Amino acid sequence: MNEYVLEVNDVVKRYLDFTLDKVSFKVPKGSIVGLIGENGAGKSTTINIALDLVRKEQGTVTVLGQEIPNEAHHWKEDVGVVFDGINFHEALTPLEIGKILSSGYKQWDDKVYQNYLAKFQLAQNKRIKDFSKGMKTKLCIAAALSHDPKLLILDEATSGLDPVMRDDMLDVFLDFVQDENHSILMSSHITTDLEKVADYIVLIHQGKIILSQSKDELIYNYGIIRCGAALFEALDKSEILAYRKCDFQWEVLVADKAKFKKQYRDAVIDNASIDDILLLYVKGEQAK
Ligand SMILES: Nc1ncnc2c1ncn2[C@@H]1O[C@H](COP(=O)(O)OP(=O)(O)OP(=O)(O)O)[C@@H](O)[C@H]1O
């Protein structure tokens, strides 16, 4: 088996006023990859192309070792998908959905489904139309996890959940990938969630991937220098990733904060959160 469960290579998609521009990234087996980017950056388009829901113009997508699209649709059995919103008919109950899905998925495990319904406190016989938004999301996640997918793809799926439920859900995701045979690609605007669970972060900005990095590398090595104009002018620009001017100070993103700390002893260099990194790339200037 391939060491990557999803490989997106040089994918291009053009809409009237938007281009997904040679997007490439990989989801290693056993990992959680967080896809981040501003509204309209191209996250859903990328995910939809990876799921063969939107046609790409160039590039290749390989899911679980199979290049898609292809004639065999078996790969869909092994991919669980949760969008922000529900795909099930609103008149159905969780019990009825379980019955429908059990005939659609060879690997459907009703015991697993029942366990998730209980864990997420979802009534079996309540109609979906009477569910809250968060309950609908939980139902979609329960259903997606109950056909034993090897790859779970979540497009902004957890944003409707309250902080306690989101935290519980992150534990569910961590459990899911623990055996190294399961992997997750999740897009989210809640970057603190990704800080908790993601192994890798892929940042897409205006249709281009501008960062694809291990989360630990970002958290431990990336830094933000906050300085005045004189120090900013003196900084080695070849080592700067992005920068912006805020009022009277400059914020500068660097990949190796320890090196800068040694070189510029008087500079204030803070750790960079994923939000900081996103903000600097999106609102600032990219240096290289
Ligand atoms: N079917 C379509 N026809 C035309 N333009 C589209 C279509 N689908 C998406 N787009 C455009 O592609 C761009 C990227 O949209 P996409 O939904 O991929 O962004 P996103 O990163 O998921 O944003 P958000 O965080 O707001 O969900 C947007 O400019 C959007 O208007």
TrEMBL record:
KW 4Fe-4S (keyword) present: no
Transmembrane segments: none
Classification via SMART domains: AAA
GO molecular function: ATP binding
Keywords: ATP-binding, Nucleotide-binding, Transport
CDD domains: ABC_DR_subfamily_A (cd03230)
Residues of the ABC transporter domain: 6-231
Alphabetical list of InterPro entries matching this protein: AAA+_ATPase (IPR003593), ABC_transporter-like_ATP-bd (IPR003439), ABC_transporter-like_CS (IPR017871), ABC_Transporter_VariousFunc (IPR051782), P-loop_NTPase (IPR027417)
Gene3D superfamilies for the chain: P-loop containing nucleotide triphosphate hydrolases
Pfam families, per the entry: ABC_tran
SUPFAM superfamilies, per database record: P-loop containing nucleoside triphosphate hydrolases (SSF52540)
PANTHER family: ABC TRANSPORTER ATP-BINDING COMPONENT, ABC TRANSPORTER ATP-BINDING PROTEIN ALBC-RELATED
Record-given protein name: ABC transporter ATP-binding protein
